Each structure stands twice: as structure tokens, then as C-alpha cells.
Amino acid sequence: MATLNSIAQSLKNKSILITGCTGFLAKIFVEKILRVQPQVTRLYLLVRASDAKSAKHRLDKQVISKELFRVLKDMHGDGFDSFLSEKIRAIAGDMAMEDLGIQEFHLKEEIMKEVDIIANVAATTTFDERYDIALDINALGADRVMAFAHRCHKLQMFLHVSTAYVCGSKSGAMLEKPIRMGETPNGQNNLDIEAELRLVKKELKELQARGVEKTEETAAMKELGLKRARSFGWPNSYAFTKAMGEMLIGESKRDMPLVIIRPTIIEATLADPFPGWIEGFRTAGSIIMSYGKGRLKCFPGNVNLPLDVIPADMVVNAMVVSMVAHSRQSASFIYHVGTSKQNPVRTSIIADCAYRYFSRSPLKGKDGKAISVRKPFLYTSMDDFKKYMNFYYNMPLQGLRLANLALFNIYGRLYADLTRKYNFIMYLAELYEPYVFFDGSFDDSNAEGLRMAMKAGGVEEAGLFDFDPKCINWEEYCMKVYYPGLVRYVMMQK
Ligand SMILES: NC(=O)c1ccc[n+]([C@@H]2O[C@H](COP(=O)([O-])OP(=O)(O)OC[C@H]3O[C@@H](n4cnc5c(N)ncnc54)[C@H](OP(=O)(O)O)[C@@H]3O)[C@@H](O)[C@H]2O)c1
Fold first, then answer.
1. Is 34 among the domain residues?
2. Between 336 and which of 60, 64, 278, 444 could a Cys-Cys bridge form, CB atoms 3.0 to 4.6 Å apart?
3. What residues flank ligand 1, with Cβ below 6 Å?
4. Domains: count for the chain
């Protein structure tokens, strides 16, 4: 590991190509770099768009205008716009295409000549994504970025953001180890990515030959992804294809310095640039907000198991520190960035805090009245949760359906509304089952080593790049940071 003298200083005069910056995590990464090292040469931000103008428009609207950039804006005052126009460049592209879909020859040449670091953060993060799309972006797309990296003249680091759940549906301690090509969580080790690609092609051809509607094609492709993932021991097409992405880049990296960051469930920032910033309903957030809105009276989740949630700024800090630490080292380094090993938080604490928070600060319903919440009940298994939902919701719903039929549809709207809510809760529960009932912990010995190296190196800005989960006070985080953040930035979209 390179000595960690000064992390921010190492970013001076560097050019970085970043994918996925219209998304949640990469925006925080972009903001952090610009704030801690204003003398970074340039950030090339790959944005899915057809041309430079629309890429710039997306960047302005979906990234720079976010409240996340408030602190940076205040730092630069009137010079903010000129600072940004000098430091960042929106690049129209698409990871689903060769050369990342960058059309302009001169721009592509410039990037290949200039970039020192590539941070591949982009992914399709929908858990039950269509198999063809998830394969194309999370697996092949990651490999396309690696192919691009090989053509960059002076690249020092390829940073790839994966997920801790590439381990699949297993229990026990998950290690920060590479996944070998073809390795599967069920131990069969018989995954053949080429065969999966052929299967997808064949299924698509058959569906198209049958002339099915797009919605039916999508449903079939989602189903195929889930089926294939589960057959090898992954919970969904997202984790499955992210694992394939790791396998592919692991094979094609050759002597490229590679860091793979595997975060667990990323939620609101703990401190940086300010506490509570979050975007979009994510795994734990959607369950919590459904509870606050009174749609969910109980939580699927085992009281005794930790829910591995990590604040987004800690993930970003780990990304920055690891890419600086391993620049120019032609090896692979894998880091779990989570909390279950160092400072686990039990699901019961998350649920209990949600009860206290929404009792004190209730959300308002459409009628303007406060939504009252009851102490949530935690179901220790998915079967128990399904039984509860069936008894208290589905059976009365079926009664309502019959009454509605007998009474000439007078309860039609009510029945449709309640059915929609019931289906939504069941959808959430099924989707998040592998995460809320995950019976394992993520060993983070490598990450701990990196933290120790940072401290031993006497890095002045250690606080600025802290990613030690031991410092999280979970009650305080839930009550004062995370839940208020969900309400302010996700629900009210501030
Ligand atoms: N959020 C979590 O809890 C979590 C946990 C563990 C790991 N991770 C990993 O962290 C990374 C970032 O996650 P996130 O939560 O920030 O995801 P996100 O909000 O869903 O953002 C995904 C980003 O990827 C981009 N993208 C998707 N397909 C693309 C393509 N074909 N070409 C170019 N860009 C494309 C999206 O662009 P568009 O705006 O054009 O769609 C978006 O900018 C991902 O690699 C994810 O697997 C996330």
C-alpha cells in the first residue's frame, strides 16, 4: 500500500472519468472531490444522453442543482459557475455501447490521453431488472469500462463500485475475496456467462417471434433474471449481474491497478457535506417511509439480525482513500464497506427508532391530518410475515371483493386502492427479503487495514475521509439524521 501522506493532495492535478454521476452515490463522490481538492484538473462525467447538450442539461438539473452542492456553492460564491465549467465536463455516452458510447473522436482521444483514474460507479440498481438489461450494464458494461481503461495512456487506478451482496444467499462471515470466474454461491461453480448471454438472446428471439407486447416481454425477462439468479444462489438479477461484472473485470484487468468497493446498503450521509442528504427511496428507506405513511404496520425483519446500513459519505470516503492508496499498484484490492462487523445495528433498533420518530414527527396524509403509527411488529421469517399479511389484509380484501361483486361495484375504487397498497407491500417485502433476513456479516479486515494505515500515516485530514463505522451512534443517526433526511430530501424532494 502506498503511504497515505495526504489524501486530498494526491488528487491535485488529476483527471478522473466517473460513470453514474446522475445517480445517488457518484454525485456525493463528485461533490467531495471538488470540495476537498479544488485543484483537481478535471472530472469527466459520463452521462447517459444522446449529445453533449442534453448531457450538460442532465448534469445541471440532476446533479449540480441538488442541495448536496450547497456547501461547495457557498465556498465559491460568485465564482461557482466558472469553477464548475473549468473543472467538470459532461460527456454524452452509454455503458451499453462500445467505447462507452462516446461519439466525438477528439473528446474520446482527450479523455484517453488525460485521465489518471476511472471510477466506475454506474449500474442498474433495480433488484428485479430485466435480465438482458442487467447483464448488459452490470456485467458487460463494467467490462466495457475496463476495455476503455486499457486504452487510456496514463491510467493509475480503476475503481469499481460493486455490492457486498455479490456473496449471494449465504450465511456467516463474508470475506473480501475476489469471485473467481464461474464461481457461484450454491457451490456448484458452474456459471458460464457466455451461455447466459446465449440464453437471453434465444428467449428474446422466441418472445419476439410470438409477437408479445413490450410489457409481457419485460415481465418474462425479469422472471428469467430471477430464475437464473436463484438457480445459482443469488437473490436477484442485480446481485447476480454485479457478481458477473466483478468476474469479468477480474479476468480482463491484466496489470491494471484495480480496487473493488463493495458497499452494503447505502443510506443518508452521516456528516459530509452535511448530515442527512439522500436521494430516492432505497432498500431500507422505502420500508421506513411506508411505515411512516401508515401503509406498513409491521416490519419484515429478524429482531436478532443486523441490517447492514452504511452512510453514503463513508462509502465515498472509502472510495477516495482506497484509490489514492493503491494507485499504480498492479493488483486487485477488495473492500467491504459496511457496518455489520464493526458496529452492527439490529433491525429492532431501526424499527423502534422509526416508531419514536414518526410518533413525534408524524407525516401528514392527503387530508392534511397527522398519520398515526403504532409500535411495529417484527416478523422473524418471511413465512410469518406472509401469514400475517394474508390474515389481516388479503382475506378481508377478498371479502371486500365478493361484497363489491354482489353490490354492483360500489366498493370498486376502495377495492382497487387497497389491492394496490397490498400488492405494493408484498412487492417490497419480496424484493428486500434477501437483505432484511440476511444472516451474515461482512468481514472488513481489508477496510480496517486501510483505516489503520490512514491513522498510522498521520494523515492530517483523517477526519475528512473517515469511514470507520464504529463512530456511528445508531439512535442518533436514525432519529436526527437518517429519518429527517428521508422526509426532507426524498419525500419533499428538497
Ligand atoms: N444504493 C445502494 O444502496 C448501493 C449499495 C451497494 C452498492 N451500490 C452500488 O453503488 C453504485 C451506485 O449506486 P447508486 O445507488 O448511486 O445507483 P443509482 O442511483 O441507481 O445510479 C445509477 C447510475 O448509473 C447510471 N447508469 C445506468 N445505466 C447506465 C448506462 N447504460 N450508461 C451510463 N450510465 C448508466 C445511471 O444513469 P441514468 O441516470 O441515465 O439512469 C445512474 O447515474 C452502483 O454500482 C451500485 O451497484 C449501491
1. no
2. 444
3. 19-26, 46, 48, 94-96, 121-125, 137, 141, 161, 163, 242, 263, 265-266, 282-283
4. 1
